[in-house]
Amino acid sequence: MKYKLNRRTLLKGTLGGTALSFGLPPLDLFFNSNGNAYANGDALPKRFGIFYWGNGNLPEKWNPVDQGENWTPSEQLAPLADVKDKLAVITGTAVKIGNTVPHHSGTAGILSGAPLEAISTDDFIYRAPTIDQIIANEIGGETRFRSIEVCVQKNPGVSQSGPNQPKPPEWSPKALFDRIFSDGFQLPGDDPIIDPRLSLRRSVLDAVSTDITRLKQRVGSADRERLDKHFEGIRDLERRLQKLEEDPPNLEACAFPMTPLDEYPKIDGRLPMQEVSRAMADILAMALACDQTRVFSNSFSFPVNNVLYDGLPAGHHRLTHDEQGDQPLVNSIVKLIMAELNYFLKTLGSVQEGDTTLLDNCAVLCTSDVSFGRLHQLDDFPIIIAGSAGGAIKSGFHYRSSSGENASHVCFSLARAMGLSISEFGLEAGLVNSGLSALDI
Amino acid sequence: MAIPIAWSLCFACSQEKETETEPVVPPPIQITPFTVDPAEGVIRRLTQSQYKNTIRDIFGPEIVIAGSLEPDFAVSGLLTVGASQSTISSWGVEQYERISYKLAEQILSNEGIRASLVPCTNSANFDEQCVKTFITDLGLLLWRRPVSNDELSELIALAENATNVLGDIDGGLAYPLASMLQSPNFLFRVELGRAEGTYNDFEMAQRLSFFLWNTTPDAKLLQAASDGLLSTDAGLEAQIDRMLVSEKAKEGVANFFIEWFELERLDDMVKDPNIFVHFNSELGDNAKEETLRVIEDHIFAQDADYRDLFTRTETYINRRLAALYEVRAPAKEGFAKFSFQRSHGRRGIIGHTSLLSLHSHAVASSATLRGKFIRQTLLCGVVPPPPVNVDTALPEPSGTAITLRQRINEHSQNPTCSFCHLMVDPIGLGLENFDGIGRFRTKEGGVTIDPSGTLDKVYFKDAWELAEVIRNHPQLPSCFVKNIYQYATGNVASKGELGQINALTQMFQNGQFKVKSLIKDIAMSEGFRKVKEASK
Hints:
The complex is a heterodimer of chains A (about 450) and B (about 525).
Chain A: H1 7-16, H2 26-29, E1 47-52, H3 59-62, E2 87-91, H4 104-112, E3 116-118, E4 124-126, H5 131-139, E5 148-151, H6 173-182, H7 196-216, H8 221-244, H9 273-289, E6 295-299, H10 316-322, H11 328-349, E7 352-353, E8 356-357, E9 362-367, E10 383-386, E11 397-400, H12 408-417
Parallel strand pairs in A: 1-6, 1-9, 2-11, 5-6
Antiparallel strand pairs in A: 2-10, 3-4, 7-8, 9-10
Helix pairs in contact in A: 6-9, 7-8, 9-11
Chain B: H1 5-16, E1 42-45, H2 48-59, H3 79-82, H4 90-109, H5 111-117, H6 128-143, H7 149-166, H8 169-182, H9 184-187, E2 188-191, H10 201-212, H11 219-226, H12 233-244, H13 247-260, H14 283-301, E3 314-317, H15 319-325, E4 336-339, H16 353-358, H17 367-378, H18 404-411, H19 415-429, E5 443-444, E6 447-448, E7 453-455, E8 458-460, H20 463-471, H21 475-489, H22 498-510, H23 515-524, H24 526-529
Antiparallel strand pairs in B: 1-2, 3-4, 5-6, 7-8
Helix pairs in contact in B: 4-8, 6-7, 6-8, 7-8, 10-11, 12-23, 13-14, 17-19, 18-19, 21-22, 21-23, 22-23
């Protein structure tokens, strides 16, 4: 962990200590005596995230043999040993929607529960928003950013807020850092920003909103929806500016993350995936700890990606199809990705929030586009839920569905755990109207 | 679309033509009558390159766009068509906002640029007339239409308020400027048409400009729109002629090919340098430049037959490309003309490292990807996606199957695979003399490569001959017309436009497949000028 606790941060801790007359250590000032809520009674926020990687797993090396709380990590899950007790490993469920666009159907199936509208071989449209955006729509209004999307391999991302509405991820750690921690960010205890230009910027956004409204009256129904998205973005930005004029959230664990490098150049044509991934993980953890957002997605790599990993003779996707036997090279890539997931989850786990950790207050859906990549399989789908959303779902076990339950049940459970009162999730063969009982409290 | 009979005749005779004689010009074919059921009026988001070109052309090349723009996506293989469906995410709103203030800051602090836009000096007093002129003039450029009175007074109010708060006019002007730059009237091309079912003059101005130049209309075009000239055939033709001889037309046509051939993927192409020792980070840029130079020369300098793009031997290379192609390097730094010979094994743009590398894997060539590019992109053939739950692995090289062809042959015994793979692989195998970055080779794993094959029953011995077969393929011109038509209109062509596309293809043939004439024909066509009211 590389948090830069600068002098300013430490000083603030001391200033907060003016309340020391109550005889409490400063750390506890922020929380109630049970350590499960802020001192003012507000519940600790729940966060939702996606950790997504492309090209699947090797089910035989992924699925643990034993179920329940005392499960033994399998070969591909062994890199997650540090956070094993915070995981719900779900195997044996299936993405039920039609596998019409190999790889991408699986992504749409698990994240949106809906089949893709296939235009041609390479063109397809999501018919429904992805689960993170459904959740962000409900709970994202509280924070400076409704949601944050990042990636490691530079790729178009997996979050969609509706048909033809992709949410482009930040691929540069520096750009992500600047966006969250440079442009007007304030640490807890800082005074709100008083700058007349903020209100001028908001009046510009009002004028732009008027332009959108006027234009909307002239266009067809499809374009009205597109303009609604634009309008929504303007509203989000207005809220973001407004937040800067308010007191920043009072969170003890919030600090500046380490400033990332300006660039992570390729070495011999290979992107340093580990370095980028860890820089992103550090920034994302602090963005959550500082309550700048409560929803995120990290598309570590894309379906069909051909990332050349260190020392490997071919790209990832190519190996999944061409490597013979039990695919030791593909196996090594999956383990490497799980090691990076482990780093991220451990980072979340090291942020203390009262007597829980940030990881406890998260639910991170970790998944891919297929199970066995070679055959583009959608059954026995790889799913891990990290964290328990503050105890709203069960955690610390391996559950294997013996009946090939619909994987959409998982997202249903997650949406409920995040406080959404949905009655169904998904479309057509992906549609469900209940959660996965193994997860539900 | 049905292929006119005349083509197959033409196809047959050019097959026989082996020696270089004067090309026989076939008699013009009759244009099949058609009616146009036009596309609905929509709004189109500026693509990244359109946004950048617009800012450059309005404010000057020294102005920097400091930030990322909302990403584009392709529909029917074209970003410009995708722009009729894409929207602006909240991330994009944030980027456009930040960029708009950075642009305003640069524009107002640059004395020369400021003087050309603001008719008064900076002072603490709000000067309404000055601000009004600034917004009216710049509004026309940025929104590609006159600013309405309501809009004008709102923008003036922004300026006045900001001037009072910040203490001077220049501070104040930044806000209406930023507002115009964030407005949907700037970020979207609004092309909704008017009651009589055609685009209005200002809509036509931007349609022409983005089609021919991939940038915003210039002052002359806006003046022509304002004078109502773009609703007349003569006025329209005059502008098209003017625009086609402008340098900007070269950039516009280049952009079509960049989108259609996905040449921007060359910018961050990944190849394994352990396998391809000639690969380096500049190769992608050089490869792109070669292909774009050839296309520009072919269409603008030579005004040559589109089909000859696939057989022309003349290219432009620099020293790095010369090393890759193993030919004599130019005497000076930079690009120079070079002509391939039969012994080099390659000709036409299919022989460029750009297209050969793009349609390869990071570690090897791919007959399937190359064949798919030719079949699907160049010839508009439909290649279904691989079925799911099948093992798509090729066998590893073995004692009996060493070359890619041998391995594919073993593999294609499986009828599930062979149905589709036969549509693409035999074409791609014709390019097996080129490795994953397009370097010539005669052997793979010590075994001599067999690059022969057939494309729709026409035999070719190797890539040199394949070039001729592609050049003479009856679908080549019609596929090009369909793509550039969709690029021009910004829509996926509807059934109601097929007659128009067919007629344009016939005109293309009658005009000896000259691209510039085709562009003009498209810009003059009903399909480009008519529009239907959008369903609400």
